[in-house]
Amino acid sequence: MGARCSKFSLCWWPHLKSNSQDSFDLGFLASFDPENGGKNEGDSLPSFGEFSLDQLRAATSGFSSDNIVSEHGEKAPNVVYKGKLEDDRWIAVKRFNKSAWPDSRQFLEEARAVGQLRNERLANLIGCCCEGEERLLVAEFMPNETLSKHLFHWEAQPMKWAMRLRVALYLAQALEYCSSKGRALYHDLNAYRVLFDQDGNPRLSCFGLMKNSRDGKSYSTNLAFTPPEYLRTGRVTAESVVYSFGTLLLDLLSGKHIPPSHVKLHSLY
């Protein structure tokens, strides 16, 4: 990214200086290159591959409800499970509604395209499964909850300013990388899509880079992050991703989720 400023870049960031205990080292900015994935984690990740349904069933203990990690549990239209492979790697498994992707070829094409991305700012997609009516995605598992949990539902103390700024920057870099690789559309961008890895760093879930169904309708749960025009069209555009990113920035600044006025009006009908 260098000195360029994209629609997601926080151009003021390198000028920030702080003597507070919440500050953190900004030196990594000089070396991060979003088009090449930063410190390319792809070197330590397996290439994208296909899993059998039996493998994923075993990894998730038979898709046990105890392993559900999606925000709305079993009520979600597409449920996400945590699982553990035979090589002891933890994974996240998204199981689509059986009617979401009737065309197996279209599903595989989409999954393989997203699976080519490798970036340290993403919870990367490492595989998929397409057997019978089953459609599943497999990604790196992030063990330290979501931004929604830490920002809105904290128990001990609110999220520190240094981490809020880190989330904003890392999310911008993740979206910039995806855009540079031809995946500018991110579906259902919201605070549940930002996950924290084993080191406590925020990452953007790769699941949102793939449509929730073949028709492209994507915002199934969090209307508060959607632009007003989505209520008319039901479609995601590059501009709607920028809108959702701005809504997340507002949440990070306030520490509260502030739904836009169009969502309040929509909820009346």
Q: Can you characterise this structure?
A:
- One of its GO terms (molecular function) is ATP binding.
- Helices cover 27% and strands 14% of the residues.
- With 269 residues, the chain is α/β, with parallel strands linked by helices.
- The protein folds into 2 domains: 148 residues, Transferase(Phosphotransferase) domain 1 (Transferase(Phosphotransferase), domain 1); 100 residues, Phosphorylase Kinase, domain 1 (2-Layer Sandwich), CATH 3.30.200.20.
- Helix 4 packs antiparallel against helix 6.
- The radius of gyration is 18 Å and the shape is globular.
- It starts with 48 loop residues before the first strand and ends with a helix.
